[in-house]
Amino acid sequence: MEQFNLLFNRKPDASFLRMLFPNGILPLSSLPFGAGFTQDLTDSYKRYATAAPQIEGAWDKDGKGPSTWDTLAHTSGRVIDASTADDATRSYDLFKEDVKLMKSYGVNAYRFSLSWSRIIPLGGKDDPVNEAGISFYSSLIDELIANDITPFVTLFHWDVPQALEDRYKSMLDQEKYTPDFVRYANVCFERFGDRVKHWITYNEPGVYALAGYAGGAHAPNRSSDRSKYAEGDTSKEPWIVGHTQLVSHAHAYHLYKRDFAPKQNGTIGITLSGNWSAPWDAEDPKDRAAAQRALEFEIAWFADPVHGSGDYPASMRKQLGDRLPTFTAEEKKLVNGSSDFYGMNTYTAFFVRDKVPEGEPIPPEDHKGNLAWSDENKEGVSRGLESDTEWLRSSPWGFANLLRWIWDRYHKPIYVTENGTTMKGEHVTAPPSEHVLNDTHRIDFYRSYVGELAKAVKDGGIDIRSYFGWTLLDNWEWAKGYTDRFGVTWVDFESEEKTRYPKRSAAFNREYFKHLIAQ
Ligand code: PNW
């Protein structure tokens, strides 16, 4: 743990402060942070998020049932580096070390997800509960609380019990799936709700539906693309799977509000993914309409039913027709208003315009709203600095616009539940040098995004209650395996102990937030 001492057991020196404030040391009065930011974020700002399948490992230990992601990882050709998450960062074994690390990062809250098939190995409403799974999460929760770290718990971060996929194709069968999900939620509220006061039902239902059922690269690997996938229908299934998530989310929400909130006093909501989309040519009304449509297909797909009009956006109905499910009157009532907050995962921004010209037919497999993307707009302005991930560039300007768009459209308190980046040059063999651990691209990312967040609160009057960086540790990035490193901690995946090396961004964030709060 030498790196650890190097970075953390020393007072901020001049060079560190220069890194914090490149335009002059401690220009605190010039920083855009006011009373609102201090009050709203004092208790809830310093945190990281993770997901069970990406960090836990122990994929078949102590009674855990396989999930659809375990199946994917054990199918050849599905993960780009042919890796599995069998061990991942071994956080199942090393959770106490993770908590210690977070403590040293000045973290006061931690967002993590529960593995459904660790708690109910076969997943279904009549299937037995695995007490070893309950006791693992119970110990993690206790350890966090003992260290003054508030747990934020996500019930579903993409890992469906494989048994439910085998029984009835999971979310494709809304009627069978919903009671199974609701019973799982009930078990979690019952067993952890005395200590967990912040619940998130689903993480990014949109990415889940599109990556797993349209593109097909994610579990359960369904798509119309027969060259790669045996089953699926890109034109229909993503919309069904989206609908199932909305309705089952709403049932879990109301169950919590009715049976648990009165005595447990917690909050519950859903987290949606969404990036900013700007017109390629800001002067062209067609491009402006394309950008609005992009936001509606990506975000309002879920946010309008939950936080807004109570129905899918008109632009989606127009393109998708009756391939997009309709809400029954009862479902509409159930879904609309079913989130105490707006849970927001966001990373980047895009420039868009129409793909198929007006008047020509849009293929039924199109699931993004008929868009063509570019990295630069008509004037040649770039959407941002490149990361190590193709779709992701640093676009703090987009984050600022997106906060405004979401606030104006939905007027719900915003919890930023994920935001972060990869960077080039982190693929080295252990031990990483000081140079590699000095992750300036990531530091600049956090500096600029959190700066926009603070401006939105202070100048924009937007009610933002939290900020979670993605992510605590380099981890198993789904179908990208170990090739994408999003962590503020570098992990040696080759080592038995999955040795953790804090990157400089972890120290940066700790000090940065300390300064903001001191304001
Ligand atoms: C999120 N996009 O996924 C997930 O919640 C995390 O589990 C994941 O590790 C993280 O972001 C980084 O990828 C996303 O294309 C995947 O805009 C793709 C997008 C956004 C979020």
TrEMBL record:
GO terms for molecular function: cellobiose glucosidase activity. Keywords: Glycosidase, Hydrolase. It comes from the Eukaryota. Transmembrane segments: none annotated. Gene3D superfamilies: Glycosidases. Signal peptide: none annotated. GO terms for biological process: cellulose catabolic process. Its EC number is 3.2.1.21. It catalyses: Hydrolysis of terminal, non-reducing beta-D-glucosyl residues with release of beta-D-glucose. Belongs to the glycosyl hydrolase 1 family. Plays an important role in cellulose degradation. Shows hydrolytic activity against several glycosidic compounds. This is beta-glucosidase. It comes from Didymosphaeria variabile.
